[in-house]
């Protein structure tokens, strides 16, 4: 065989060796693409991004906590939970009590940002607009809690962590707030700058069970 033929054969072998395997579908890094599926033939999980019109963090001054809680409840049209680690929602807003004196207000309308800011005086609380600083990913399915438990040491059994419960935690070195929306659905709020890394982790962790990506939606 001539040197030219050898070089041609070697080039072909190198090209074949570098071709990606077609047997396993891999996710697009850093974002969720509707219709994408990976892992098991019959995926047990659905991942999708959610949006909100307004997301605000409210820090009540200690002597104004009751007043702030009442005002947030009135704005959202809900009765706030009796303690931190819980959230309540109406058709248009969701209020998370994440720690003593600290709340996250999620509204369906962008106008809620101004409504909350106007309703709370600076003597009542500090209000920070997080609408552009947070992204929300929903993971839903019978094995959703198993995926989260790969990174989070929380007992997600419904008797310990029922719908309406929330927790602050860390996933893959990313600070998150986890909301349990139903027995099989969790919403994960993460800093926008780190959300792509969170999605990478979630898709990798979900491969074991198989997942599909749903259409983007709204949190309310």
Walk me through this protein's architecture.
The protein has helices at residues 3-17, 65-76, 112-119, 144-148, 195-206; strands at 37-38, 45-51, 54-60, 86-89, 93-99, 102-107, 125-129, 134-141, 166-171, 174-180, 185-191, 211-213, 217-218. It is an alpha+beta fold and 220 residues long. The chain has two domains: 37-50 and 133-218, Probable tRNA modification gtpase trme, domain 1 (Gyrase A, domain 2), CATH 3.30.1360.120; 53-129, Alpha-Beta Plaits, CATH 3.30.70. The longest helix is centred in the first third of the chain and has 15 residues, at 3-17. Mean pLDDT is 90; it is low at 7-27. This is Sarcosine oxidase, gamma subunit family, heterotetrameric form. InterPro entries: SoxG (IPR007375), TrmE/GcvT-like (IPR027266). It comes from Stappia indica.
How are the SSEs ordered, and which strands pair?
Elements: H1 3-17, E1 37-38, E2 45-51, E3 54-60, H2 65-76, E4 86-89, E5 93-99, E6 102-107, H3 112-119, E7 125-129, E8 134-141, H4 144-148, E9 166-171, E10 174-180, E11 185-191, H5 195-206, E12 211-213, E13 217-218
Parallel strand pairs: 2-12, 2-13
Antiparallel strand pairs: 1-12, 2-8, 3-6, 3-7, 4-5, 5-6, 8-11, 9-10, 10-11
CATH superfamily of the largest domain: Probable tRNA modification gtpase trme, domain 1
Structural class: alpha+beta
- Which fold name fills CATH's third level, the topology of the largest domain? Gyrase A, domain 2
**Overall form:** elongated
